[in-house]
Queue: 3 jobs
Job 1
Amino acid sequence: MPLSLLREFLDRNRIQYLVISHSVAYTAQGIAALTHTPGQELAKTVMVMLDGRLAMAVVPASLRVDLNRLKKYLGADGVELASEFEFRGRFPDCETGSMPPFGNLYGMDVFVDQTLTEDREIAFNAGSHRELVRMRFADFRNLVKPVIIPLAVGKDHSHAA
């Protein structure tokens, strides 16, 4: 079961969270609609390659990752979307495209858009296309220790994902 690693980690750290089961959905906006979660409150995990290493960029479902902004902020030589081939094997307990934004569990950096800090809670895929986890953002921040930067833009930005 995909949720088991995440649930074990949250339970071990005595974190309160809610698991929301829903019909199968493959897009963040679809999940937001099914679970009645506003798109700006649902976090989507976008896999990126930063100078050849995998990392997670986490933005509200209603926005996109600005790859140029991420590159500039980090002073990276290269930032691009990771292909499914590049990241699929790193998440053996997750369905492809449903990774929770817990890079600390998978040995990778996590970059979170600053707008997600404006909400008391964060909701995200829990390793399957049928489960969502909702928890306090402060707990997420304390466990994952993401780098919080402005990295999201509106849907129509040409260099965004």
Job 2
Amino acid sequence: MKNKILLVIFAICLISSIVLATIPAEEACGTDNEGINGCQIVEKSSYAQTIGINNSYFGIIAFLALIVLTVSQIKKPTKHKKRFIMIGIALSSIMAVYFLFLQFFVIKAFCKYCLIVDIGSIFSLIALFYYRNHDY
């Protein structure tokens, strides 16, 4: 059950990351009366990239890797894959808290697709702890 829940969360996060990487913010999120939106503000901030690479590309790679690992873990469980999944979830959750902090307190604007990825990452950590006594 845990793996299926994680797969759904990872898939939602992957789709949101793909939207962020491929669709301009004004098209993906729409605009308000002044012609801007939170997605544009967040995407144009200095925090939108890490080492010159758009953060959504890192999300695509990370969630794709987590999906592949989780599917592989379902088919043939190993302790190493379980450990990599746990590390991936921990790292994505740490980054999610950081990005939520930036949106709430630094940028003071919100990107709905970013929020989906961040909240999804935190939900995956919650699912991991909730089902911690269940084997993969």
Job 3
Amino acid sequence: MTGLALPRVRADLPGRHVDTSSRAAQLTRRLNAAAFFQTMLVVCLILIIWPSTFGGRFGIVMVAGSSMEPTYMLGDAVVIWKQPVEVGDTIVYRVPEGDFGAGNPVIHRVVGGNGSGWITQGDGKASPDTWTPSNRDVLGVARFHIPLGGRALAVMGSWLFTATLGGIAAGLLLWPDSENAPDHRARKGRHQA
């Protein structure tokens, strides 16, 4: 009796047998791991650096004028932290209600006063400000600055930068593993034989 011989197929050779269910499961695992990692990162960042404008302790502002030169230049980013104010501190505050420009943020140095009314002045100005912000108007005390960092933050906040990062992240997530990639050495050896 003549039997039908079935060809032998090696599953470990590239291009011969691909288990699509394991590829889908692997992609799902990768996406779940990435989503979990990103969620945890965002939660940790929110807990650590909750913005002072929402009642937190941390903030970043961009210098938009020249009144604090030479300490801070136009386009610098200043990191602020909510803490008790002392004379000599550089603070970011909102112009008090009832004054011209009410609600606008200002970064100036405290040269006198107390918590009910601080006297502030820009390092590049000859006279103090007309505003006297109280502790409730203060968003934070300057801790350090990043030269031209405000401009970099403005670029990072643009839609083009966000889309570029999203494209890179998607490409990295969908990039095939080396175990799924063809083994060119094995093919080269077969063709030479």
